[in-house]
Design a protein that fits this description.
By secondary structure, the chain is of the alpha/beta class. It is about 30% helix and about 20% strand. The protein has one domain: Rossmann fold (3-Layer(aba) Sandwich). It starts with a strand and ends in a 7-residue tail after the last strand.
């Protein structure tokens, strides 16, 4: 994980000074504080991710992992602190701007997948294009969806009903859908929950590979200790020391 940094051409000289070019991270947050009326408070340190980098958010159930993802997606706003994503400050954006951000630049993998039972696999992957008018469902989008399904091993199940899929296959559909709009940021909430040990690692590796291939910054909320070494960085919340 890196902070914004400056670069300048190698051939710059003292007599011909060149202003440095700021390279901003794809996703960055200052220290965030979020409070609920119940008395729950989440506090997190600052962090930043470049394209292709990954962060595991670790903590027990109820520690605020899902809340942090909601702050990064703009679904929730912090009491203090700022979130910068894909070149914009999400915490300063309007509600409609935050919705557009989630639709086009922020792919999400939900704990419950949120797949539509009445739609087949391909239609579920293409669902963001049907829900958001700012996205164009055309031949290129469909081809990209088919390519993603092939990469996650579901090329032969594009017309399969969701109820006919295994738990792991549904997880892969959810990953393909999160990537179909070519987002800059991918947020995944407990993507390996309720899976057997071998499948947990396979799903985590698949999500990491696809996010890196797409050049997206990836944040995964998990309490699964076995997959933590796969990530570039780790943030512990809910009693653990941030790392």
């Amino acid at each position: 994980m890196t902070e914004p940094r400056s670069t300048s051409p190698a051939n710059s000289t003292a007599s011909a000074a060149v202003a440095p070019v700021l390279v901003a991270p794809v996703l960055a947050a200052t220290e965030l504080v979020f409070r609920r009326s119940s008395g729950f408070t989440l506090s997190t340190p600052a962090f930043a991710l470049d394209a292709g980098e990954s962060l595991a958010v670790r903590g027990p159930s109820g520690s605020g992992k899902s809340t942090l993802l909601a702050l990064l997606s703009g679904e929730l706003l912090p009491a203090s602190g700022r979130v910068f994503a894909a070149g914009s400050e999400i915490t300063a954006a309007s509600e409609s701007e935050r919705r557009a951000y989630r639709a086009t630049r922020c792919g999400q993998v939900f704990q419950t997948f949120e797949l539509v039972a009445s739609l087949d696999v391909l239609a579920n992957v293409l669902l963001p294009f049907r829900l958001h008018g700012s996205l164009t469902l055309d031949a290129a989008a469909t081809a990209h969806a088919r390519e993603l399904l092939a990469r996650v091993g579901l090329a032969d199940k594009q017309r399969r009903a969701i109820h006919a899929l295994s738990h792991g296959e549904r997880q892969r559909v959810a990953i393909a859908r999160a990537l179909v709009t070519r987002p800059r940021i991918v947020l995944a909430d407990e993507p390996t929950g309720n899976l057997d040990p071998a499948l947990k690692r396979a799903i985590a590796e698949l999500l990491l590979h696809e996010a890196r291939t797409a050049g997206a910054a990836l944040v995964v909320a998990t309490h699964d200790e076995s997959i933590l070494p796969l990530f570039d960085g780790m943030l512990a919340i809910g009693g653990g020391a941030p790392q």
